[in-house]
Amino acid sequence: MAIHLTKESKILVQGMTGGEGTKHTRRMLAAGTNVVGGVNPRKAGRTVDFHDRPVPVFGSVAEGMDATGADVTVVFVPPAFTKAAVTEAADAGIGLAVVITEGVPVHDSVAFLDRARKRGTRVIGPNCPGLISPGQSGAGIIPADITKPGRIGLVSKSGTLTYQLMYELRDIGFSTCVGIGGDPVVGTTHIDCLTAFQDDPETDLIVLIGEIGGDAEERAAAYIRDHVTKPVVGYIAGFTAPEGRTMGHAGAIVSGSSGTARAKQQALEAAGVRVGRTPTETARHVLAVLDSGA
Is residue 125's pLDDT more than 80? Predict the structure, then answer.
């Protein structure tokens, strides 16, 4: 099983005919993802050949859904057009929109996330690597060849750390890996993924990756304490970050003890989560928990 994305998912790519969209559509197809169409109103009616597999281009998300039964869209459009792209997808009634685009204005994200929520569309991102259910499907830019199917669920703010933990635990494998993005406002949270992994009978252990700044990890810790019965292992990026300085793509600012890696570690450990200080140590915690049968 998997969360949010399975081998049955049918995927549209908004911006498929652009440079990034073309490159990553090719990679998704090579990994076995069922990409059924692209969306570009200026190129509607054409097809794009990917390794001798023709993929049609539609003029709108609604047209693509009507023609193919697509239930997922991956958004590879410039920041200035992302609000319109996600709004179009939500208005068409698509179930899942994976927004890869970086640099989306926060007020645009707030607007399209509100629209999506009202229309019943789950959004992952923006500014995220997407998600992958190894051996089934991948929507976004996460490499498909660094791990295998397994029974670990992974939710992460960081794309790079998503890849590293996938590789560190490649011999164990994953049910689904979700990169939720590190922007101040995102569509799917740690808690959303914790809930889904808790309910997934084929996920035995959850890895949670966070970073300094904000309180998302503290809120996740409270949720784990009250609602999650499966073992959770965590990692917080930023243990060596200096106080009072903006850090990383999240623009996280540490002020006093609020938002520090140490404060987040303490909150998670109080909820029973083992927290590593490095990705490698985090992977060792995962192996230890699996070996103990905890």
Answer: yes
Q: What is the mean pLDDT of residues 238-248?
A: 61
- Measured in residues, the chain has a length of 294
Please state whether the peptide bond connecting residue 78 to the residue before it is cis, i.e. omega within 30 degrees of 0.
Answer: no
Select which of 24, 51, 107, 249 is catalytic: 249
Q: Are 51 and 29 in contact (CB under 8 A)?
A: yes
Amino acid at 215: D
CA-to-CA dists, residue 9 to 5, 33, 121, 136, 280, angstroms: 6, 8, 15, 9, 33
Q: Would you give the distance in Å from CA 185 to the centre of its chain?
A: 14
pLDDT at position 249 is 47
Contacts of 50 (CB under 8 A, 6+ apart): 25, 26, 29
Using an 8 Å Cβ cutoff, are 141 and 100 in contact?
A: yes
Q: In whole angstroms, give the CA distance from residue 282 to residue 272.
A: 14
Asked whether 65 and 91 are in contact (CB, 8 A), the reply is no
Nearest to 288 by CA among 213, 220, 231: 231
Q: Among 132, 137, 138, which Cα is nearest to 152's?
A: 132
208 with 273: CB under 8 angstroms?
Answer: yes
Q: Is 285 a catalytic residue?
A: no
What does the block give as tokens for 93? 């009634």
- The tokens describing 21, both together, are 């969209």
